Amino acid sequence: MPTTIPHTTTAAKLQGVLEAMLQMPLPIRIRAWDGSTAGPADAPTLVIRHRRALRRLMWQPNDVGLARAYVAGEIELEGDLYDALNRLAALLWRAPDLRDVPLRHVAGDLVRLGVLGTQPKPPPEEMVVTGTRHSKRRDRQAISHHYDVGNDFYRLVLGPSMVYSCAYWMSDAPGYGLADAQRDKLDLICRKLGLRPGQRLLDVGCGWGSLAIHAAREYGVQVVGITLSTEQAEYARKQVAEAGLTGQVEIRVEDYRDLEDGPYDAISSVGMAEHVGTEPYAEYAAILYNNLKPGGRLLNHQISRLHLPPKQPHQARTFIDAYVFPDGELVPVGTTVTLLEQAGFEVRDVHALREHYGRTLRAWVANLESEWSSAVSLTSPGRARVWRLYMAASALAFEQSRIGVNQVLAVKDHRGGAADMPPTRKAYAA
User: Which of 8, 86, 114, 420 is buried deepest, with most CB atoms within 10 A?
Assistant: First the structure.
């Protein structure tokens, strides 16, 4: 006859079932829906508020199943958030595929726990894009899903700088914070591009206009910023007007494939190329090259793939793809450099900023947590939970060298080979 796992409480039963299924000890404490607890006392606690969370994990035994339960509010993490995510990530990576685990020894316990049943519907925050991958229409859907959450929500998370990319932390001094680090990043980009008064800068994926405004105000350039997000464009235009820069900065809702008014003296692409996709990247690089004057520079700031966790069979989607960046793709920085060179660019500098992004993400998580009730009222409880999970997990991924971020500085040489570049990094290094 099938054996049952000895237990005295619901939590102890859950612990036994999960350890039997996962074939390893649980590295985290459990508190069940009835208040009972089990597991190591000194570990963060996974609060299971509803049986439905376990049913989700039965159907999706990976980060998507775990995320669905968290976004739906069926589980909660208590204690150190980063420690808890570390332990859960290691558990998922090492665990066997539950489809290959015989459940006959715990079937009775699963029935009594109310775990078995049909697959629950995903939370409404989960995104499914339609159409041809990386077509203009589908790219607009993906960008809208992520960026049209609401400008007030983004301001709460990002702070007044409204810069949604890795900051450049130049100091540990008291009083030096996120806004200072973002300002220093914007200035680093402008110096690398060698901006001078009267030049034209194209900012591809301009976000809320922070780089465009900084470049126009501090370096006297004319700027065209393009984005696919209508909410970003509306906010950026308002900020440009308030800064008195309407005559210098133009913000457009435009796809990079529709650019027709080049060439420009310089091009910035900050946090944009991850959305382009692997297959279209050669076309993207060629379009940027063709829209740049000879001697003009490109600053490409892009997240890169480093080391991936072990592959999980049968997993069609990841949490990031389902909830955060639909169709986003990461490639090694070497692939990016190769594609830029194949388009005609000469790559002059590669600057790794991995540790800076971990620190930036922790600052964003702290902003979100300190204004949690406001974040929920501006979006939804599920959306706020998506952001907390994604930013905290991403901070760990950067800190643990699973993903990186790099600024690649490239130039379009003149026909005779002149690059109009300074002989050393002194002009832009910091």
Answer: 86
| Nearest 10 degrees: Cα torsion 112, 118, 123, 126 | 130
CB 223 within 8 A of CB 248: yes
In three-state secondary structure terms, 276 is coil
Q: Is 0.85 topped by the overall pTM? A: yes
Specify whether the CB–CB gap between 408 and 337 falls below 8 A: yes
Q: For 210-308, where are the alpha helices, taking DSSP H only?
A: 210-219, 230-242, 281-290
Q: Cβ neighbours of residue 290 under 8 Å, at least 6 residues apart?
A: 262, 263
CA–CA separation, 15 vs 13, rounded Å? 5
Is-contact 251 233, C-beta < 8 A? yes
At residue 83, the 3 state secondary structure works out as: helix
CA–CA gap between residue 349 and residue 411 (Å, rounded)? 10
Q: What is the C-alpha separation between 188 and 170, in angstroms, rounded? A: 11
Domain residue ranges in the chain: 10-113, 136-427
The CA distance from 140 to 147, in Å, is 10
Query: What is residue 427's predicted lDDT score, i.e. its pLDDT?
Result: 85
Which pairing describes strands 264-270 and 249-253: parallel, antiparallel, or unpaired?
A: unpaired
Helix (H) / strand (E) element for 301: namely: strand 292-305
Q: Can you tell me whether residue 340 is helix, strand or coil?
A: helix
Give the pLDDT confidence score for residue 91 in this predicted structure: 75
Tokens representing residue 342 in the block: 């194949």
The answer regarding whether domain 136-427 maps to CATH 3.40.50.11320 reads no
The count of other CB atoms within 10 Å of the CB of residue 345 is 24
3 state SS of 344: coil
Output 318 or 297, whichever has higher pLDDT: 297
DSSP state letters, 100-166: GS--TTTHHHHHHHT--SSPPPPPTT-----SSTT-HHHHHHHHHHHHTT-HHHHHHHH-TT---S-
Is the Cβ–Cβ distance between 157 and 182 less than 8 Å? no
Rounded to 5 degrees, what are φ and ψ at 221? -95, 160
Residue with tokens 């983004």: 154
Per-residue pLDDT for 313 more than 50? Answer: no
Res 315 pLDDT > 60:
no
